[in-house]
Amino acid sequence: MAGAHVRSGTGLRFPAGGSLTSNPKYGNKQHEAQMAGKGFTVKKDWDNPREHAMPADARVPAAVCLGTVRVTPATVLAPMAGVTDTVFRRFIRHASLFTAAAGSDEAGPGESAIEADVTNTQSGCGLLMTEFTSADGLSRMRESKRKRYLTFYDDEHPIGAQLFGSNPETLADAARIVEDTGFNLVDLNLGCPAKRVVGCNGGSGLLRDLPRVGELFRAVRKAVTIPFTVKFRLGWNDNQIICVELARMAEAEGLNAVALHARTREQGYTGQARWEWIAQIKQTVRIPVIGNGDIRTPEDAAAMVAQTGCDAVMIGRAAPSNPWIFRQIAQYTATGRYELPTVQDRYRMIRAYFQMLLDEAAASQVLPRDARHGETAGKMKQFASWFTHGVPGGAKLRAAIYQMRTGAEVLAQVDAFFQAKLDGGETEPESEREETSAFPEDALVCD
Ligand SMILES: Cc1cc2nc3c(=O)[nH]c(=O)nc-3n(C[C@H](O)[C@H](O)[C@H](O)COP(=O)(O)O)c2cc1C
To answer: What own/partner pairs with CB < 8 Å and gap ≥ 24 does 392-398 have?
Structure first.
């Protein structure tokens, strides 16, 4: 483990394996679009469940090798700016803990207990990704400032760092920094639709300039020995779908895997992800293909694998609203069923995350004290919003915490909310999600 700022061990306590209540299926519901509160927007297509015609044996693979990095199970936490910082990544990894004890008692007739090839006792999430980081910024920054962007802990391995940029030399420099810091792989972002990124020809802007993409591939490939992957969209718009060609280039230039968010840049987050393009790429290249877009449930993950043949699945928006998703996928893979959280599980989970945020703010030297506390309160609010979408009464809580100024105030609101539920005898697992899941519009800045 390299890098002085990489610290180990968290001593975190999470709900023990098996504490979730068994339920054969996570209920899906057709939702009406509705505003859930100021600043929130409802992603209509995201909320509409996908219909699956799924073979009974559809399963997420137990492992995939991205070059020398073995990812087991074959599930990846998507890079998400403003979300997948070190605290969130560790939170997900621990929330995903899944052991043989977690479900073996509950396997029904004809169902296997947790099987050997999926007993990932570390985590149901096989690979963590950082938020995207500017290669230009990184290569110019002082060592001390880099910590802010590249901090990770020992329990985050395997972990990949994502970069964006359009200059081959700076991207190569930044990739070297990523390698020297101890990341297991480096990923190039060719999907971010944000104007300020596209304006510098970065992110999805590069989808219109394949010769430049070739230069970037070669420069980074030459600069590092760790596995190198790329994440991209279908193309700029429907008239310029270049994802298959891009995947072919990636393979020819020695990249170790490709990840496709199956939408165009112009699509943003509208419409459904077009998984058929993941299948096209899978039929074209021999390097691993990671499928991404609209996985909300274990059934979705299994269906994506069944429909596209992809080697791994990547999950973004579902993770903050349902941090158990990776564990549920692992359990579903093993037994064909998975567990749903109870109100108590949910309460424990949000408490655990908040504690991690507070611990990190106390330990971090990167920002001044006030800024750290402000950031922590902001992250608490953000997470409480995502995490309580679909929870009965969640809209009221979100409206209340929107007004809060400090982490302690947010925590007090959350405590009161869950305590009232528990006092009222709400201990059963949630059945159907009551409200739409939503992301603040301004959070959808990038991909
Ligand atoms: C808040 C937010 C931030 C994101 N930031 C990034 C990013 O930094 N890099 C990237 O490649 N994709 C980013 N994405 C896109 C996701 O990685 C993913 O491709 C997209 O959300 C589709 O997957 P999903 O349907 O599982 O959410 C972001 C998405 C969201 C919602």
So the answer is: 392/426, 392/430, 392/434, 393/417, 393/421, 394/434, 394/435, 395/36, 395/37, 395/435, 398/36, 398/37, 398/40
Q: For residue 109, count other CB atoms closer than 10 A to its CB.
A: 4
Look at residue 31 and tell me if it is in a domain: no
User: Would residue 422 count as lying in a domain?
Assistant: yes
End residue of a domain, out of 340, 361, 389: 340
Looking at residue 292, what DSSP letter applies?
E
Say how many Å lie between the CA of residue 160 and the centre of ligand 1.
Answer: 15
Please tell me the distance between residue 443's alpha carbon and the centre of ligand 1 in angstroms.
10
- Whether residue 66 is found in the same domain as residue 101: yes
Q: What is the rounded CA–CA span in Å between residue 134 and residue 188?
A: 10
Whose CA is closest to atom 26 on ligand 1?
A: 316
Report the nearest atom of ligand 1 relative to the CA of 131: 8
List the domain range (segments joined by +) for residue 165: 58-340
Question: What is the value of pTM for the model shown?
Answer: 0.83
CATH code of the domain containing 315 = 3.20.20.70
pLDDT at 139 over 90: no
| Mean pLDDT score, 3-9 | 31
| Domain assignment of residue 274, yes or no | yes
Q: How many CB atoms lie within 10 A of CB 180?
A: 13
CA neighbor of 437 nearest in space, from 281, 322, 355:
322
- Can you tell me the distance from the alpha carbon of 132 to that of 79, in angstroms, rounded to the nearest whole number? 7
CA pseudo-torsion sign 379, 348, 399, 29: positive
Q: Are residues 421 and 309 in the same domain?
A: no
Please check whether residue 315 lies inside any domain of the structure: yes
444 lines ligand 1 (CB under 6 A): yes
Residue recorded with tokens 């992603």: 43
Contact assessment for residue 159 and residue 129, using Cβ atoms and an 8 Å cutoff: yes
> Which of 306, 340, 374 is the C-terminal boundary of a domain?
340
Amino acid at 177: I
How far from chain centre, in Å, is Cα 316? 4
Tell me which of 192, 243, 310, 446 is the catalytic residue. 192
pLDDT at 7 over 70: no
**Do 288 and 69 contact (CB within 8 A), yes or no?**
no
Q: What is the mean pLDDT of residues 381-396?
A: 86
Q: What is the residue with the minimal CA distance to atom 12 of ligand 1?
A: 447
C-alpha 137, offset from chain centre: 23
Rounded Cα gap, residues 214 and 212, in angstroms: 5
Which residue has a Cα nearest atom 19 of ligand 1? 261
